Amino acid sequence: MTDARYLKRTIVKDVIPSQNLPEGERNLRIYLPPGYNELLSYPVVYCQDGEQFFNFGRIATTANQLILDEGIEPFIIVGVEVDIAHRTAEYSPDGDRHHGYVAFFGDELVPYIESKYPARRDKSARILAGDSLGGTVSLHLALTYPDLFDQVISLSGAFYPASRAIAEQSADLSRLSLFMIVGLQETAFKSDRGTVYDFVAINREMKVILEGRGARINYSEHNGDHVWGFWQQHIPDALRAFLHEEA
């Protein structure tokens, strides 16, 4: 049975205006940790597919558990919601809304969060997280904004040819740290564009590309398919990889 303390979560719904997104705004879900105090400062985990990370990934419950039972330093989670109809266009580097979404994230979202919430303002305190194409856009955000992001959680990253080509153009990625997992049953995933991909193969390829340019990779393969039931199991380890125990 889940400890009742883990279910006492503070999640604030917010809306951020945007000049880079066609809709002019984006919905956010903000998790505030136990003992939240505006006089303190907190690391921030930025999640693509924000609604899914909270509802299916159970990331807020996991955060409470890590903070209350394992002594992990309290942190804020920002879940950025997405319209599924535009998800590929925003998350894929060859999508027609990708550049606008990336600009929204780096130029609008981060300053907004750091002006409204007591978020720590250094790269070591910002973590990007995403599943599938969410892992892809998280990597591309780190490549586009090297002064903002160095740390990426990729759960079964959809590293299609366009993404691998961009990574290959980078010379030195020694600043990057990635937590990457993939499921061994993800060998024939059909994308929404109709192409079938072997996710094990493409994640292995991206690992080689990134490591060849100096990135530090925490990589593992597990039994699992391209579903939240698999990713949810590995969110605790993903968070532990970048968040530390309180001093």
Automatic annotation (TrEMBL):
Gene3D superfamilies: alpha/beta hydrolase (3.40.50.1820). It comes from the Bacteria. InterPro entries: AB_hydrolase_fold (IPR029058), Esterase-like (IPR000801), Mycobacterial_A85_antigen (IPR050583). This is Enterochelin esterase-like enzyme. The lineage of its organism: Bacteria, Bacillati, Bacillota, Bacilli, Bacillales.
